[in-house]
Specification:
Lipocalin, eight-stranded antiparallel barrel, alpha+beta, elongated, 3 domains
């Protein structure tokens, strides 16, 4: 027997369908189909079909929870980034360091990429930077000892020049001592004050003031006025006849050019120069040639080769002394030689 409403199989004796709840119109009792009083049934309390089991929404709830968590996390990250953007000083130092390093690397890369290719300079060789004067404590003491020998036991190479007090309005008397044409000592006094100045290569290496306080180079710098005045006056008074004296006007010494050649000026007289020219031949060989040069002007700043170029394969040289350099003129472009 089946339910007339839904077709669900029914058991004997059941008054309602167990699936849809519909009343059964007939009842099989004792093998007979008995008509049910459906009106009575209808008039009775309504029969409600059993509620179906609600479907599970667990998956939807989990999905919504995950989505909500992601949104909350994103909001927190946004708030933190906004906070640090407003306060750059609160950023971690490691982040700043990496950023600066990356920026520097990019800048260097761009500079290397955009830098123009270097071309060989076509300008003539510039004057090399002159090494500053220096002297060690031991060397200084050795020089002072030599100067004392020059002072107390002078030889033909030592010259003395004195100036009376009151000359040119200066109340001090001056005693200048030269060795080999260079000022080595100045004694400046007025009867109550005494100043002692010791020199090497035209630099004051020791100064002893009126209170007998000693100042050694480079602590002599505060007394540069004494140094300058003594040098200027001493060389203005140096007699031209003195051996290797100031009449050389700075010629003596070794001079070099950028190509490796050099001039070794060994003697200066009233009339000219004696030197050894260390020069490179057209074949690239270094040779040493002795030269005698004679002055062409009263200032003794220009000297030409004695006898012209006959003795040196057609080369004729003229030397012109400048401020710290010598210009050598010949059949080739001028060459500049700087003091070694």
């Amino acid at each position: 027997m089946y339910c007339e409403q839904c077709g669900h199989p029914l058991r004997d004796g059941e008054l309602f369908c167990t699936k849809c709840g519909a009343p059964i119109g007939k009842k099989n009792i004792g093998g007979k189909n008995i008509e049910m009083n459906t009106e009575a049934v209808r008039g009775s309390a309504p029969v409600t079909a059993p509620a179906e089991k609600p479907k599970s929404h667990k998956g939807l709830i989990i999905a919504l929870s995950v989505t909500g968590g992601v949104c909350v996390l994103g909001l927190l990250v946004w708030l933190m980034l906004s906070f640090f953007a407003l306060k750059p000083d609160t950023m971690p130092s490691a982040t700043v360091a990496v950023s600066e390093e990356a920026t520097a690397a990019v800048s260097e890369s761009e500079a290397a990429t955009n830098a123009p290719s270097e071309k060989p300079s076509e300008k003539p060789t510039e004057k090399p930077t002159e090494a500053p004067f220096s002297i060690s404590a031991d060397e200084l003491e050795e020089e002072i000892a030599k100067i004392r020998v020059y002072y107390y036991t002078p030889t033909a190479d030592d010259v003395q020049k004195t100036v009376e007090s009151g000359t040119d309005g200066w109340r001090y008397a001056r005693d200048y001592r030269f060795h080999g044409g260079k000022l080595v000592f100045a004694f400046i006094f007025d009867g109550t004050e005494e100043h002692r100045l010791y020199f090497k290569d035209d630099h004051m290496i020791r100064y002893i003031d009126e209170e007998h306080t000693t100042y050694d180079y480079p602590d002599t710098a505060p007394f540069s006025d004494w140094e300058k005045r003594s040098l200027e006056e001493a060389y203005s008074l140096m007699p031209e006849s003195a051996p290797n004296d100031a009449s050389d006007s700075g010629w003596l010494g070794t001079w070099e050019n950028a190509g490796g050649e050099s001039l070794e000026i060994t003697d200066v007289s009233d009339t000219g120069l004696t030197l050894i020219f260390h020069k490179i031949t057209e074949q690239g060989k270094m040779i040493d040639v002795d030269y005698q040069m004679e002055f062409d002007n009263a200032d003794k700043t220009v000297a030409s080769e004695i006898g012209g170029a006959e003795d040196h394969g057609g080369w004729e040289y003229t030397f012109t002394l400048g401020d710290g350099f010598i210009t050598v003129s010949s059949r080739y472009p001028d060459q500049i030689y700087y003091k070694k």
